[in-house]
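Final report, section 2: Outcomes. Of the targets proposed, ISL3 family transposase is the one most frequently requested by collaborating groups, and we therefore present its record in full.
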Amino acid sequence: MSLAGNILGISELEVERVDRDKGIEVYARPTKRPLCIYCQHKGVRIKATYQRTLKHTRQGNQVMTLHLTCPKYHCPQCRRYFRHRFKGVRPRFRASEAFRLEVFEAHDGGVTQRKLTLTHSISPATVERWYQNHCRLRRSERANRPCPKVLGIDEHFFTRKRGYATTLVDLKRNKVFDVVLGRSEASLGRYLKALPGRDNVRLIVMDMSETYRAIARRYFPNAMIVADRFHVIRLVNQHFLKAWQDHDPEGRKNRGLISLMRRHEWRLSPEQRDNLGTYLNAFPVLNALYEAKQRLNRLLLLKTLTRKRAERALPKLLRLIKQLHASPLHRLANTLTSWLEPVTAMWRFSKSNGVTEGFHNKMEMMSRRAYGFRNFENYRLRVLTHCGWDGIINRV
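The predicted structure is given below as C-alpha cells.
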C-alpha cells in the first residue's frame, strides 16, 4: 500500500492534488492495473476513464471528499469489460464504507440525525438508511446460527397497541437469540414451528408461567424446564405478605416492618431480629408462617447441588409443602406442588433469567432514546444488533 493509501485507508492510490476550502477535496487515481476479475489475466488495457466522487471520513471538522479517476478495463483474453474496484468502496455508492461506518457508530452512540446532517453533510434520511443497513448487515451474520442449548424465556412490554413481546436469550453466551411479538401460544406457535434446531435445546429457564411451560413442553421436547429462582422467591414473599395482610392489616402498612419481613432472616442485624421477634410474638400464627417462609427460602436458594445432595433435600421440601397445605399459604403450596420438578431443578443448575431481565432494561432504554417504536421489525432489528452480536463488522 502506498503512503497515500495508508493515510486514506484505500490501497494503491496515487494522490494528484488536494484542495482545501470548506472541505478537503482529494484527487487521486489507482497506481497499477489489476488482474481481470473474470479470468485473472494480467495484460488488461484501459478502455476509458470516468470520474467518481464520494465522501470518505472526516479530518478534524471537515469532510474529506475523494475524486477518483476510475479506469474501465478490457481483457484481451476473455474479451470482457470491468471497472476498477477500490478496497473499501462499493460499486455505485457515494460514500466509502469507512464513512458509512463512522456515521453508524456516531448515531449508535447517541448523536442525533440533525447533528450528523451538520457535521457530515448528509440528510437525516440518509443517516437512518445507513443505520438500518448496518443493523441488517449485523443481523444477517447470525441468520443461520444454531438454536442455543440453554435458553431463557421471558416477556416484556412493547407498546400499548401491540402488547407484549417474548425474549429468547442464549444463557450460555449471554446474548439475545431473538425477540418475537406476542406471549401466547397462538402468537408464538408459527415462529417456534419453523425454528431450526429447537430439538437441540437442553435447558429452558422461565418464570412460573403456565403458558410458557406449555409452549416449552410442546415445542422443545428434549429440554428440561428450570424455574427462575428470583421469581420463585418473589412468589413466596407475595403469598406471605398477602397472609400478613389478612392477619394484621395495620401492621402491614408499616414500611419498616415490611422491609424486615421481606429480608432473609440471616441478613438481619441482631437489633432488627429482636424488633421483629417482639412484633411476631403477638401473632403466633403469623410467627409460624414467617418461620416456614424462612425455611422454604433456605431450601429454594440451594444451587449447584450434586444428585445425592438434591435427593437428601427433596424430602425436607416435600414435608414443608405438606405443612403449608394446611395453613393460610395453601395456594402457595398448590403452586409449588404443580411446579415441583422445575423448582427442584434449580438445585442442579445455576442459570437464571437475571441476564434476560438485564436485557429488558437495555431494551427499555433503547425505546426511550427512540421515543418509542411503532414498527416491531425495526425494534427487533435494533435489539438483535445491540444485544445479540459481538464486535463490529468490516465488510467491503
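The beta strands are 13-20, 24-30, 45-59, 62-74, 81-83, 150-159, 163-170, 175-181, 203-206, 224-227.
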